[in-house]
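Subject: for your reference before the review

Hello V.,

The reviewers asked for a structural picture of the protein, and I figured it would be easier to keep everything in one thread rather than splitting it across files. Below is the amino acid sequence we used in the manuscript, unchanged from the supplementary table.
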Amino acid sequence: MENLFSVFRYLISRTELGFVRYLYSTINWNNRLIAIVGARGVGKTTMLFQHIKLNYDVNSQDVLYASLDNLWFANHSLLELADEFHKSGGKALFFDEVHKYKGWSREIKNIYDSYPQLKIVFTGSSMLDIHKSGGDLSRRAVKYTLRGMSLREYIEYEHGIKLEPLSLEDLLTNHIAIATETGKKIRPVSVFKEYVRSGYFPYYKEDKEGYHNRVMETINTIIEVDLPANLEIEYSTIIKIKRLFSIIATSVPFKPNISKLAEQVGTTRPSLLNFLEALNRAQAILILDKEAQGLKRLVKPEKVYLGNTNYAYAISGESADIGNVRETFFYSMVSAANKVSYSDQTDFIVDGHYNFEIGGKDKGQKQLSGLKNGFVAKDNIETGTGNQIPLWMFGMLY
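And here is what came back from the structure prediction:
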């Protein structure tokens, strides 16, 4: 266990506190069992280290962080670690990448039940489903989902300008005043163009030139590592999922013909729908349906997008379709706190009654004719008017 302490202290010594993700302040860190899930690369581990550094004496035996893909766990169990840690006076355990440890849910449940003095925080893939886990953690763990950076966070992280998050209602009602005030601090259209290319994953700062290559590596790791770690799938299935993602990447946004798509991928219709569900849960793609409550199993999704705009530029470079980028940006930003669903008449319906068309600065309002609560989210404008709102502002919602 001393080796784990050594690795932990080295890693936390490199942790900076200058920028903290939006989710941090919403977590009730007093809960005994906390689950933080999210896509690979969004900053779950950094957030754990920041919390530890801000709230514990890292040189004491009170707290320990361990990534469950550490080789130490090849010959030791979580229960063994918890027992030894508890006997030495430990108070808080932080487990990272739990989906890489077989039987994680049952052992964490046993630790929770057997050592009531211990506090446990664990992270895992966005595919992690604690409600269906073998250990039945749903009644014990409080689950939080961390998304990639919003445009608002990117502005703070990259440009040092702190802006408060908006509610959708505030944005729709006061967008002119808010945009005018924001425009005094930064040129939002220019920053928007930076963000959609390279601002979703915090690791962009580590190597801006090689960022898109790393994004492609992230996509591959999601399919080759995270999916098999959470689903019982064979190598041949991974190949088919890669083929599916490749088709989606060159076609988005599109309304999938499930039978044709299944034929292209070389699988059955039910399997294809399961693949789409898996990619959606992994946040590699975004699925839009009419109910706005996720993919209904064995029911065709209405529309499919890439998981975020950076994927589009990593895959297609500057030939990325700007219409797709705009819609993907809107969907990924708004769906963080609001329900976004498919509409036969407009691009999106939000929370069941706000109708949105997405486009450039010359986008008209024909599709909104006869609809109440209709809005146009326009790219390449800094300030809007009436029901015409700058697209960049929807990146201020979290």
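For the response letter, the relevant points are probably these. The first strand starts at residue 33 and ends at 38. Residues 292-298 have pLDDT under 50 and may be disordered.

Happy to draft the paragraph if you're swamped.

O.
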